[in-house]
Structure formats: structure tokens, C-alpha cells
Task: structure prediction
Amino acid sequence: MRKSVVNRNLLALLVLILAGALVVILGPDRTGDVPPDPAQQGQGDAETPAAAAAKPQPDQEGEAPPAFFGGTNSGGRLNFGQGDSSAEGGDGVLEVQVWDSERQPIPGALVAAFPKQPFDELGVEAKRVRQEGRPCDRQGRRRLQNLNPGLSYRVAAIAPGYAVKRSPAVPVGGKVELTLVPSVTIRGEVRLANGDPVPEAAVLLSAQDMSLDGLPPVARSDSKGGFQLEAPGAGNYHLRVRSAFGSDQWLKDLAVFKDMEPVQIIVEGEAALVVALLNEQAQPLIGHRVQLASTGRGDGALGARTGLSDDQGEVTFYSLQQGMYELKVEVPGFAPLRERWIYRGEAERLERVLRQPGTLEVQVVDAGGNVVPDFPVFLHARDRQVRFGLPRNQRQRATDEEGQCRWTDLPPGDYLVTAGNPAGDQDGIQLEEALQSRENVGSGTVWAAVSAGTENRTQMVLEGFLVQRLWVRQNGDPVAGATVAVTLFRKVDLGKQMYFSMRQSNEQGEVRLPPLKPGNYTVLVRASDWALPHHSTIEVSANGEAAVVDLPSGFLYGQALHGGQAVAGASVKLVDADGRPLMDAFQMGGRFQGVTTMEDGNWVVESVPAGEYLVIIEAEDLYPWKSPPLQHDGVQGFPVGVTEMVAAASLEGLVKNLPSQDNGAAFQLLPLHLVDLAGNRMATTILDPQGRFQFPQLTPGDFRLMLEVGGSEHQSPPVRIQAGDNFFEFPLP
Result:
């Protein structure tokens, strides 16, 4: 037992270390964290930051977030390792006092409470404390209210000139004192060996302690090579620099203190790649950013190597490792350039001519010339480099109400536009074959030539497919907001049907279905979250006639109570007369999951067709309620009535004096029955080898236990089962 506990602790420690390492490597945006212990650091920056602190603001407490029926609202964002300072909604209070290192209050300091969460030792962002923090009064005090009494919180504080600091986790109702240490400014320069400045160098400050808060985000050197960082207090730090002019530079155990000298960083390397940027008139493009990112190793927090084009329009990258890189150039007024390049160890020059971008507009129509709205369309560049360079979110578009989709800032060239997969049919040809040849493109695909500086329009015709209009009605009235789906199979099989393209009906109850081949289809329609799904068969034909789905107007309704009080959140299920669940392809598992009772205990199930049903109501700690068979006409409302639910009971116990069994013989299963006083069997369980038994989810009342052993039947005296847990011993003679 002790060994397994130790192993679990070691595993948890390993997970924490790995998570911390990922944060350092991948480098999240760190704009503020806990500074080092002031007792182990220097005295801080030049001026006393308390004098520069913001004036106190009027006391303003945030309101608890509203609660919404059918769900919960945390009122804030959940961030890994940072907690959620907005997760309030209780009457808990924390008293906070903020001091400087000389034990003087810091007026106007911002404080915020974050619920304790796993891995929150990895830090909190200072910008989040600034955004969500509330100011202290003139004595540096703040009363944080509306906290959840069931949670522990870590309180963070920050003030101008100070680094952010957090407290350990404290329970609600306590007092928190935070001592802030001054932040320290680090200034420096990045230069070449000959003294020339290195612009656009990425500079990252890190610390040996991965849980240290207040580490600043990545800084970039200016045109003179200068940079500035705010360290969370004096101490030893690591400095890492990445630029286009050489390999990464590390300054380990850099001593940071008040009035320290500027840091000098020398970068040097061997030229590996020259990128020349030209316009269509062969003129150099000067002063534009060029990025080179590694595709295999990843660039972490420092990001891609970045350089600015010189007077010749050139950027030189030095000291590269062999491998694949992605070159990215974005110049205003020109089509963006993104391409992949492999460095094989030899210096290379890439001359790239940037051209004006083009615009492509595609309209999708069906075989009858009707526009196809809300339809997925994919863009593929014939040029492999352009194809790889297109961002994923730019490759796919959905058509608008006019059946159109539009792409801007495209590099000039040939593009293949392919339609989504209409009704599961594989029209057209394989993509790679289509990109090699412009022949045999087929239905659902179209070639488009994009010229520089022009708008290009084309039309895609879905041959053999038609857009079907559908009206959803109930009692002749339109049903707005109904969810409609179409089955992929012509033959209806409720156990195997698959649905696609969920659409919502508009205010007029109209839905335009996706392109379909002519024929009969089954549609599934649900009027609301409280409605049963309705299956209907429609015909898609070339005459363009709209289909109509009439939903059943019948509904069942009732109210669940316990002890005269409303039961909110109970599950209400509808099954057929044989107890089988109703099919619902919208739900996981294909079964109707039912509805839940509202705050007042009321419930309703809409769009119920004619038939015989059973209603089952289940709630935590209450005995499930089951109605008798209900015959519904499918037209009117059917009142199930008020259901008075009772507390659930359970019975555990022990049967004594069981006959012993032979050693080595298979254990004999002994069923134990629970019967009412009239002898009707209510439940059955199996005794374990020691004679123990358990009956969960019972209704309170008087019962007997009945057991047959060795051909003899034994009955217990009456057992009165009350709400809650019950125990009974059943001795055999």
C-alpha cells in the first residue's frame, strides 16, 4: 500500500515537472508573475514605487454572475493554471492587505482572487490581474466579496512599479497579507561582432524556478538593437536571444539588480540563406519583415527568426541547422508569401517577386440554377508552394444566402475549387489528379484563374443535385427554430440511420436543405429541446416543389413535487407501452434522453404523436416514479398531473446460519427476493459468499425477505423500510 502511494506521488511530481517544462519551452504569454522572495533579493529599482502607485478608486464590487435555466454560467474564462477569478456567486469574503518591502501600505494596488486549481503554481498573468483586479484603499486594504465559501483561493496583487505576487491557497473567510517587491528594469543591446545593431531580435527572460510569476513576454530589439525587460525583482535569471544573424545566444545566471549596467549581447554566424524581395518591376522592397520558422523542431516562445529587408531588399539568415523551414513574408499591397524550403547545409539565395493579390468569387448553384446557401467549398492552389502556404482557415468557405463565397489576397495563379460532399456522393475526381491536369474535373469542381489586382468570378454547378425547400408547420402555423436533418439512406432503418447537415428553420418555418439527388428521403425534425423528434418522408424532384412537414401538435405535461416542494432538474423520460425507449438520432446512442423539470417542477414534452406511452421521472435521492400506460391522441395536451415523489430507500443486511458448502465446490448462487406483505415480488438480488445483500432504490414500506435453500423456503418477519439507508439481519432457523 505504501509503495503504491509513493508511486502515485512520484507520478504526480513527474507530471508537474513536465508541464512546467512545456511552459518554459513553448513559452506562453507571460506578462506578470510572482516575484522572488524579497528577503533573498536586492532593494529594487530607483524610486520608491509606492509614491507612484495609482490613487484609490471608488469601491466597486462586481455582481455575482446570473444563473440560466438549463445550464450553469461561471461568468468568466477558465485558463490552465490560472483559475477563474470570476467564479463567484457566494457570500464568502477575503480581507486583503498589500504592503511594500518597508511595511508601508500601497494605495491603489490591484488585487484579485483566483480559485485554487491544479498546476496553478505555474503562474498567473499580470495583465489578467490588471484587468480583473480591484483597487485597494489608502491603507492598502481591500475586501473581496461574493466568493464561493466552498473553494480555496489564491490572491494576487500588483501595483505600478511592482511585480505581481500571489498568496498560497487560503480558505474563504481568512485574511491575506501580500508584500510586493519592486520590479527591476533590464536594458541591453544586441549587436554583431563588428558593432552593427541587430534589429528584430527576440529576447526572452526566464528563471530557474519554473513557478516564478511576473516573467515578462518576449521583447524585440529596435532598429538600434536595443531592448528593455521588466524583471520581477532582483535575482539571477536566464536570457535567451534569437535573431536572423546567428544561432541562439544564452546568458545563464545573469545577475539582475538595481542600477545594473546594460547587457551587451554579441551575435555572429555563417550565412546560410539570402532572401531577396522584389516587386514586378524588379525593384527591391525595403524595410519589410521576413520570417523563417522551423517546421520540425518548433520555435517555442522565441518564435521564428525575423529580419528586415535592407536597401537591396535582402534579408540574410545565419547559422541554420539542416531541415525544413517555412518562409513567410507579408508586405502591404502584395499577396502574402508562404512557402517551404529545405536547408541542406549549403548557402542558398532565394529571389522572390511579390505580386499584387487577386480576389476570387464563386457562386454555387444546383442543376436547376438555384443558388446553394450554407454549403462548404474548398480552395486548392495548383502551385504546390501556394497550396501549402494557404492557412487552414482560408482553404474552406461556406456560401452565403446568395450561394457565394469569396477569397481575398490570393497569390495569382490557377486554383481548383471543390464542393463539399453532397449527400455522401463522391462526385468529381481525386484531388491530386485534378491538380495535375485540368481535364475531367467533373461535377462539384471548377477551375478558376486568379489574376493580379483583379476580381475573378466563376460559377460551380452541382450537376444532378437539387436544393430542396422545406416548410415546418404545426397546426398550420410555421415553426421557427426547428432543427432539421436528412438521412443518408433512402431506406428508413431507425437502428442504422445516419443524418447530416443540421439546419434551423427561419421565422417563416422555411429550411433550405443541402443539394440532394432526386428521390425520396427521410428527414428528422425537432421543434425544440422539449420536443420529440419527428420522422417524415419527402420527395426531391426537378419541378422544385417545396415539401411540407406537419409536426404532431400533442404534448404531455405535469409537475414533480417532493414534500410539497418543487423538484427541479429531474429527468422526465417517455417510453412506449412496452418500456422500450423512443428513437432519437439527435441524441447520443440514438435514444430519446427526455427533458428536465424546471425550477417550479413543471415539465413538458412536445410534438408527441398518437400512441400509448409511459412516463418515468427520476431525481437524485428520490424513488423513480412511473406512470400507468397513457393513451394519447397526438392532438391535444395530455395532463399527467402532479407527481408526489418520495425519498428513495435502500436495504442492506446479512443472512445468518447459511448451510456451509463443500470446499472446492462451485459457489451456489442464492437469489434473495424482496416481496410485499401480499407476496408480490418487488426486487431480487444475489447473496455473496458471506450472506450479505443489498437492495438499492426502494420505495419505503413494509416488506418481507424470501430465500429458498436446500429445497426449503424461508420468509423473514415483516421489515419496515424507511427513506434512507436501512439494515436488517435475516437469521435462518
Remarks:
- The helical segments are 2-26, 126-132, 384-389, 392-395, 431-436.
- Confidence is low (pLDDT under 50) at residues 1-89, 421-430, 489-498.
- The domain at 271-353 is CATH 2.60.40.180 (Immunoglobulin-like).
- The radius of gyration is 36 Å.
